[in-house]
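Continuing the series of single-chain predictions for the mutant panel. This is the parent chain; the variants come on the following pages.
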Amino acid sequence: MRSRLFFLVLIGLCCCTRSLAQNSATSTPAQAAETRKTSEPYTGDLSVFDSPGRAERLQIDQVMDLLQIKAGTAVADIGAGSGWFTVRAARRVGASGTVFAVDINPKATKYIEHRLQRENLHNVEVILSEPDDPKLPLRAVDAVLLLKTYHEVARPVTLLRNLRASLKPGARLGIIDRMGNGENHGVNREVIIREAMDAGYLAEQQLDWKHDGMDYFLIFRVRE
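Parent structure:
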């Protein structure tokens, strides 16, 4: 009886070990990406994003041109922070367009709401989002920009997958960031491209945005 019981326990241990090994072997790149290093989300003084000359340094008008942001379009500013890009996009899309200012920080969303009142802008919807879900309306967005935000996203593949349901056919996703190891307020462009592919996107353009080998601008579309 003892011999038979030992034999059954041994079989159970073998099956459990085999199952764990199979699960480990079948881990997807997307799962691995969700464990990479990231930077802590910024929680400091939001006014720093409105430094003089920032629009010229970031070539923000050209960014909007490449994302085809124009009158009547719907734009999502994910990681909106102070609303610096939000207000510029709002002026460009005009009264017939919409900008969604998305941030996980309640202080940021309140800051943006006050800014919109001061600047008399009425075509912006402010969204307090989850870290991996922008909470945007379905099929509502023509263009998305993550401006120096992506390196702070702890679950980037999940975020990008959740974003897809909100994109209109042909929508563009833009990511501006800088080269880094994830925790130094930057992440290598190859990492973003791989993660976006895992989430179902294709890279359309890769631009060395300041011609310094550090800052870059990537444009994606949903893979059909």
